[in-house]
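User: Predict the complex with 4'-deoxy-4'-aminopyridoxal-5'-phosphate.
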Amino acid sequence: RTLLAALPDQKPDPLLALIKKFASDDRPGKIDLGVGVYRNAEGKTPVMAAVKSAEHHLWETQDSKSYIGPEGDPTFVSLLAQEVFCDGMVTENLAGVQTPGGTAALRLSAEILAHDNDRSIWIGTPTWANHNAIFATVGLGIKTYRFFDPQTQAVRVDEMLSAFESAKCGDAILLHASCHNPTGAAISAEVWSAIAEIVARKGLIPLFDNAYQGLGRGFAQDVEGMHTVLKAADEAIVAVSCSKSFSLYRERTGAAFVLGNSATDVARGVANFAYHARASYSMPPAHGAAVVATVLADAGRRKLWIDELASMRSRIFEIRTELTNRLSAYMPQLAAVADQEGMFSLLPLTPENITHLREVHGIYMPDSGRVNLAGLRIEQVDQVSRAIGQLL
Ligand code: PMP
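Assistant: Here is the predicted structure with 4'-deoxy-4'-aminopyridoxal-5'-phosphate placed in the model:
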């Protein structure tokens, strides 16, 4: 019985393959709309000024690299909770752990959800590709509902709500807190209330993926819909990524929170997070979380960070508005792209269109048609719109 030959073939990550293709293209005007990170007007993903300042402070003051434990840094967890939740929610019925990025927060969430064999998780399509892998890996039953229509650029509200109506008590529903990846589609306040009502009536467990807070409408606004649902839920989980909001991608910084009915219950939730953390990565890396805690604990650094985040958000918004103005001249439905939020939108392009854009115009995006607006410089919008518009 062989080991390696018996393993299944694994397809390379299509986004990583696209990055390689882009790197080997030597046309000077090539444009990368595939990458999943924020880029500034110079096409760079810089270290935020508040992060640099925090790192400087840590370098001067950190006096040990000793272990911190599977739950991570409790100061980071409680400072982050103040940013993600509203006042009434930060009580003894909320607790969390630091994780290596949002991915590990989702993985720990999947582990505790999978403890009940009868539980399924409802995932909208399309979604971030890794969601499926994370939930499938722990053996959680996955049910899907159609979330978005690329032709109309609208959320399929009725399909989503009727899927939640058909879920069983105790099932989990996965929701993106804001800046939906890959569609950018925003859920209105009325629809968040409708979701909250179903969650409460049917006893569903919302799992929020909060990976882009601050890159949508505003740092506080980006979690308002989530708060509506959390207040209605009996129990809930929130997976937070600091990768985008603090531009800390490679530092692997995030947190998983549970909201429950008692301090005892949430302590049990956290103990189970810690158990699964120990069994896989033992404990999260310290640096990114120490940076975030150092930013959040100091009013000056926090303001520097919030202001820089606001300027990132307005750059994305400017590109979004300019691109929408031009594309909607070719296809009126695309006017809806202006109301979307975050870095991404999903354009109604075929794989043939996408190959054409890459080969003829040097414009790179994955076959899904997801574009990262932050990959564009303002002076490129006209050229890109004309290339895409001809195909619509
Ligand atoms: N959720 C979504 C929707 C994402 O897009 C990402 C990153 N691409 C993550 C979670 C995970 O982020 P990370 O593990 O890098 O913090």
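Residues 36, 101-103, 128, 176, 181, 209, 211, 241, 243, 249, 254 surround 4'-deoxy-4'-aminopyridoxal-5'-phosphate (CB under 6 Å).
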